Please model this.
Amino acid sequence: MSKFEVKMPKLGESITEGTIISWAVKVGDVVEEDQILFEVTTAKVNAEIPSPVEGKVLQILSNEGDTVPVGETVAIIETEEEGGEEVAPAAAAENAPQPEKPQPTESAPATAPQAATPAAPPVTAKAAAQKDEEARWYSPVVLQLANQAKISAEELDTVPGTGYLGRLTKKDIQKYIERKKSGAPAPAASAPAAAPKAAAPASKPAPTAPPVTASGEDQVIEMDPVRRIIADHMVMSKSTSPHVTTVIEADVTKLVNWRKRVKDEFRKQEGINITYMPAIVEAVSKALKEFPTVNASVDGYKVILKKHINVGMAVALDDGNLVVPVIHDADRLNTQGLAVAIDSLANTARANRLKVADVQNGTFTITNFGSFKGLIGTAIINQPQVAILGVGFIEKKPAVISTAEGDVIAIRHKMYLSLSYDHRIIDGTLGGKFLLRVAEYLEQWDK
Model:
């Protein structure tokens, strides 16, 4: 028998803690691998956390409603390894089978190196723990099966996983071993990329909030777990990035006329209403390709230019909180594909059904102040990104238009765009050029 520690997982970049909503098991329950243990909420997503191993629940260390730091143990499961061997999850090296040392033969001196191919070193949880903390994780059962099949750590990293967040399950490794024995080629899985580490903040005294007192007539309301996480995230962003905001007014008359022209046909074909957001995301995606420094993150004095353009969009929830689902590889979708993706993600977010993958790896964010007729807003950067676009309300305005016959005053549809950016790597010139390019794409919209 061995004891396995279930820890609070990291459910997205910049997430440092999660709040347990409910437990699906109790002490004494026997659970299977990938069976749901508990549900957790963060500022970005609600997620059901499965069991990494099969066994019996010995202890539950955190209660419903507790906010737990990432990596802290929340439960302990007793597991039974095959063959009765005890394999501790953090120290499997002690019990893992070791490769035999090559023995000298009669025809060769003991000091001469053998020409035989060396055996693959055993895979151990201890070795895995020495990797970056964001590297792929393996359960004791998977490690034991890999050792028995003489699969090296490097080879194990290439085996595709079907478990939670791409984790390798017992069934996955068994299928891989069977394919390997039969000689059939097995599909390779790319190793999960490690999230960029934030630079260690300089030592400085923590800011002290001014004291606040409540009288007997005041109502005191506790922030819910999501609002607390959002509050901490916003304060962290402002203390991390020196924010600068640039504003531009765009004439989106062509865009408005296009939507009027296609909305009825689009609803017949796709069953959803076409909004302005697909066009805005498309314009942003094109501009990010031209200005890759805006599609980046900062790691100390290093700038990480992101290969993928993953655009997040802020969605207001019925409980007053906010979530940011992500459209991955937005630059590869046309206007129709973006419209379907945006509608699906927004509905899923409001139904509280987003998956972890739906909120991860965003590289740029858009927030819509115009939903409530807001004209201009100065948004806070969604760390570890370096810029966020605010979209204002579209209103009719009289404007001077240049024509072949001279200047005339006409009614035009105008919208303010505001770009908040990290002044560590984006200055006013770059921020202004990027914002102007987005505006030009929208002003020249013609589909």
